[in-house]
Design a protein that fits this description.
The complex is a heterodimer of chains A (about 600) and B (about 180). Chain A contains 23 helices and 20 strands. Chain A is an alpha/beta fold and about 600 residues long. In chain A, β2, α2 and β3 form a beta-alpha-beta unit. Chain B has about 180 residues and is of the alpha+beta class. Chain B folds into two domains: about 80 residues, ACT domain (Alpha-Beta Plaits), CATH 3.30.70.260; about 80 residues, 2-Layer Sandwich (Alpha-Beta Plaits), CATH 3.30.70. In chain B, the strands form two sheets. In chain B, strands 5, 6, 7, 8 and 9 form a five-stranded antiparallel beta sheet that branches. A four-stranded antiparallel beta sheet of chain B has the order 2-3-1-4. Classes of the chains: A alpha/beta (about 600), B alpha+beta (about 180). Chains A and B meet through β14 of A and α1 and α2 of B.
């Protein structure tokens, strides 16, 4: 044998992929084999450092990797084959792009000489995934593979995190080349996300904060993405300034829901006090959020009297939807640290007593009110019971998309970041169950609950099989109202109560379904049985499908009707037929 | 592009459209043009003209010049969206610097006889267009200049027997000794 063959860095492309995963500290990946990735699966078979979780559909691999990433702060990794394997990844990639989740997807591709030939299971993977990744690569030479893999991890996790995809043709997986460990020169010189905030802007921000009479802090997922330091600093800033704080759906947990300055979530289904505070404030500090349309309501009536400070690592988030006065580009942890330092040195806690009195009046409207019943379980009550039963436990919550998701955000109190996994930007029904699989893989001893709807959960139900195979005791807590609740709510509000295809005519028996998968099925109808059933669900150390039969026609309030401003919320007690008809008149086209 | 101050140029979204010329320096790698074009189509931005060519072969650098229209808020977004793409080095708004030269090249085919033919030649001379192909009944003119000048020349050729036009789109460069 030649000298060269003993070089430990000489290896096949497939071996390089596994080696790169190990070098980046990856311990778990989610995937599904197929023709174009067989060499990689062969390498996975012959090692034990990287555990592979076999999903039942590639979309499940993507969402599981997302759940893994969001609950750990580490990148999630998915491995899929060419053609349908790659196209099935489009939804999770888009989801991760919208919610800034670090995801590394490795896809197999047909051999280089067949690319463009309409070969079996060929598709233009980099073309298809270009708009739904932060960046992607097709590797045509095995000697480029190490560099590309290392860059992929760097791009996914740095700056504004996001999904990346590396497409590797089968002949490149077989070919032998030279591997190198990660090094700085692996990254495009053109890619240098800005971390440190501009000092002048920070001073301007502090001057605004120090003189605020009616301030509010509006935080988002960026704080959680920035890492534990950002969360700590955000909490400290709230403490030092005494300001009220609200958060987007993505940012829940950065400030504890039990904290005294907490206003609840803002936006379309946010609390009255959060939205009124946003509307009437004079200084708004937006940290790691992006003025999404679910947050702002009517843009030209959004917080009309305020000076706005916007901290974001992505310059394209600045002034995209709402014009701000003091943009600060950089990492929010870094910038919050600088703001705190300047504030502590030069400013004192502003007197905002009268502002808090005003907020207390808004709070007193009790916008999350609902009427409990002894006959039927109200979905809000179900979430509250779940919250009470899991309080103080090491719990992670995922959700699907719809009414149950909003109720979970409203009624489940998050005390820590990384505990809440939900599809915010893309709104992917079917996210929660596979995400729970990913979370449970990362946290095998924790309690992982997917708060689900009966419609959403059926979109990726097959991953129950994954949970059973790997003994992942995830709990699927289905708020079963036999409707696509949010679709129905909109049809009731905006489409003359014509419930077009929003009713599930043939729901499966979830208990039997659970048993068919080898999991545990539980069902509860009566409010009196709820608490006991939840306890049972928690105590079972196996995957559970929990069929919680809830009031079928309950709707999600409070709500900012489409095309309306923050101070035009519809509160639950006002939501009679006439008031809703009036509130929604003319808003039909505005989603 | 990274100064927060650039964010201040934002006006109300009912503002009239402006035309801006953007110079984008990119890593010349497979798919980079598709990324840029995909950004424009995906986000609903306009492309009036687009030129691209490798400018520094050794460093694998290409320069893309894009003429786009939009409200000031949209133009600002376009620049940020371009700038955050991984293979993009720099984005310069040539219109905002007010110190740039823009040129376009067009080849214009005109067919005619008699007085029309003479007039076409005369106008070509006035516009400093060169004849690069001729037959007894046609000319191909080569003309360079800014977009307005070329548009004007083409308009003048129309009644004289304009057959077809091939244009390169706008290339732009800053005045003075500094590079972008």
């Amino acid at each position: 044998m030649s000298e060269k063959s003993h070089d430990p860095n000489q290896m096949t492309g497939a071996a390089m992929i596994v080696r790169a995963l190990i070098d980046h500290g990856v311990t778990d990946i989610f995937g599904y084999p197929g023709g174009a990735v067989l060499p990689i699966y062969d390498e996975i078979f012959q090692q034990s450092e990287v555990q592979h979780i076999l999903v039942r559909h590639e979309q499940g691999a993507g969402h599981a990797a997302e759940g893994y990433a969001r609950s750990t702060g580490k990148p999630g990794v998915a491995l899929v084959t060419s053609g349908p394997g790659a196209t099935n990844m489009v939804t999770p990639l888009t989801d991760a792009l919208m919610d800034s989740i670090p995801l590394v997807c490795i896809s197999g591709q047909v051999p280089t000489h067949l690319i463009g030939n309409d070969a079996f299971q060929e598709c233009d993977t980099v073309g298809i995934t270009r708009p739904c990744t932060k960046h992607n690569w097709l590797v045509r030479d095995v000697n480029d593979l190490a560099k590309v893999l290392h860059e992929a991890f760097y791009v996914a996790t740095s700056g504004r995190p996001g999904p990346v995809l590396v497409d590797v043709p089968k002949d490149v997986q077989f070919a032998t080349g030279t591997y190198h460990p990660p090094r700085k020169s692996d990254v495009h010189r053109s890619y240098a996300p800005r971390v440190k905030g501009d000092a002048t802007q920070i001073r301007k921000a502090v001057a605004l904060l120090a003189n605020a009479k009616r301030p509010v802090i509006y935080s988002g997922g960026g704080v959680i993405n920035s890492g534990p330091e950002a969360t700590k600093l955000l909490r400290e800033l709230v403490e030092v300034t005494g300001f009220p704080i609200t958060s987007t759906l993505m940012g829940l947990g950065a400030y504890p829901a039990s904290g005294k300055n907490w206003l609840g979530m803002l936006g379309m289904h946010g609390t009255y006090e959060a939205n009124m505070t946003m509307h009437d404030c004079d200084v708004m500090l937006c940290v790691g959020a992006r003025f999404d349309d679910r947050i702002t309501g009517r843009v030209d009536a959004f917080s009309p009297g305020s000076k706005k400070i916007h901290i974001d690592i992505d310059p394209s988030s600045i002034n995209k939807n709402i014009r701000v006065d003091v943009p600060i580009i950089g990492d929010c942890g870094n910038i919050l640290g600088d703001i705190l330092q300047v504030f502590k040195a030069e400013a004192k806690k502003p007197d905002i007593k009268s502002w808090w009195q005003q907020i207390a009046q808004w709070r007193a409207r009790n916008s999350l009110y609902y009427k409990k019943s002894n006959d039927v379980i109200l979905p809000q009550h179900a979430i509250q019971s779940l919250f009470e039963a899991t309080r103080g436990k090491d719990t992670y919550i995922t959700t699907e998309v719809g009414q149950h998701q909003m109720w979970a955000a409203q009624f489940y109190g998050f005390e820590e970041p990384h505990r809440w996994m939900t599809s915010g930007g893309l709104g992917t029904m079917g996210y929660g169950l596979p995400a729970a699989v990913g979370v449970q893989v990362a946290h095998p001893d924790s309690l992982v609950i997917d708060i689900a709807g009966d419609a959403s959960v059926q979109m990726t139900m097959q991953e129950m099989s994954t949970a059973v195979q790997y003994e992942l005791p995830i709990k699927i807590f289905i708020l079963n109202n036999q409707y696509m609740g949010m679709v129905r709510q909109w049809q009731q509000l905006l489409h003359g109560n014509r419930l077009s295809h929003s009713y599930s005519e043939a729901l499966p028996d979830f208990v039997k379904l659970a048993e068919a998968y080898g999991a545990v099925g539980l069902q509860v109808h009566k409010p009196a049985d709820l608490e006991g059933a939840i306890k049972e669900m928690i105590s079972v150390k196996r995957p559970v499908l929990f069929d919680c039969r809830v009031a079928a026609l309950e709707n999600c309030f409070p709500m900012i009707p489409s095309g309306k401003a923050h101070n035009e919320m519809l509160l639950p007690e006002q939501a009679n037929d006439e008031a809703t008809a009036k509130a929604f008149a003319g808003g039909k086209a505005l989603v | 592009m990274n100064q927060p101050a650039s964010a201040y140029f934002i006006e109300d979204r009912h503002d009239p459209n402006e035309t801006h010329t953007l110079a984008v320096l990119v890593q010349n790698e497979p798919g980079v043009l598709a990324r840029v074009i995909g950004l424009f189509s995906g986000r609903g931005y306009n492309i009036e003209s687009l030129t691209v060519s490798e400018t520094e072969a050794q460093k694998h650098l290409s320069r893309i010049t894009i003429v786009t229209t939009g409200t000031p808020m949209v133009i600002e977004q376009i620049k940020h969206q371009l700038d955050r793409m991984i293979p993009v080095y720099r984005v310069v708004d040539m219109t905002l610097t007010r110190r740039s030269i823009e040129r376009e090249l067009a080849m214009v085919k005109v067919r005619g006889q008699g007085e029309h033919r003479v007039e076409a030649l005369r106008l070509a001379d006035a516009f400093r267009a060169r004849v690069i192909d001729a037959t007894t009944e046609s000319f191909v003119f080569e003309i360079t200049g800014n977009t307005d000048k070329i548009n004007q020349f083409i308009d003048l050729m129309r009644p004289l027997g304009l057959v077809e036009v091939s244009r390169t789109g706008v290339a732009a460069i800053g005045r003075g000794p500094e590079g972008m």
